[in-house]
Amino acid sequence: MRVVLTTVLEAKVEINKKVVGAISRGYLLLVGFTDGDNKETVDKMIDKILSLRVFPDEHGNINISLQDVNGSILSVSQFTLYANTAKGRRPSFVDALRPGEAEPLYDYFNQQLEQKHGKVSTGVFGADMQVSSINDGPFTLLLDSKELF
């Protein structure tokens, strides 16, 4: 499982010029899955995401969490996080989990985030989405379950 986490002042997802998800200050999460990912992987990733201290405190030190800033989450499925560009000019996506397996994990991810944090908006799995954000910092992390656990 891979997650690109960006701290944002605001972010939104549109489909056909209609906003389907939007947040103010918080995290924009781009979420991708690969073979071997399961609910245990998702649970560990959620614990990592919610425990990170990536917002500046009153002294400018990166020391406070999403909960400390009363932040929200916008979660967007992103199979292209598993693109392989080693050969040729066209990315290969064979490492991305197939939609039939990835969608239930993505749904579980969002349900668990909402249960543990509360303020979660999402895109639509598999849809052609336009994602926009005003990044804060910018501050962006790549979280990969193979490296974290």
Short description:
By secondary structure, this protein is of the alpha/beta class. The protein has helices at residues 39-51, 99-116, 145-148; strands at 2-15, 18-23, 26-32, 53-56, 62-65, 72-77, 120-122, 130-144. 23% of the residues lie in helices and 40% in strands.
Describe the structure.
The chain has helices spanning 39-51, 99-116, 145-148, and strands at 2-15, 18-23, 26-32, 53-56, 62-65, 72-77, 120-122, 130-144. By secondary structure, it is an alpha/beta fold. The longest helix is centred in the last third of the chain and has 18 residues, at 99-116. It is globular.
Q: Quaternary status of these chains?
A: single chain
Rg over C-alpha atoms, rounded to the nearest angstrom: 15 Å
Helicity range: 10-25%
DSSP strand count: 8
In terms of DSSP E residues, the strand content is 35-45%
Name the helix and strand elements from N-terminus to C-terminus, one letter apiece. EEEHEEEHEEH
Structural class of the helix and strand makeup?
alpha/beta
Shape: globular
Low-confidence sequence ranges = none
Distance between the termini: 11 Å
Mean pLDDT: 97
Please tally the helical runs, counting DSSP H or I stretches of 4 or more residues. 3
The main pleated sheet reads as: 6 strands, mixed
Features:
23% helix, 6-stranded mixed β-sheet, alpha/beta, 40% strand, two-stranded antiparallel ribbon, single chain, 3 helices, 149 residues
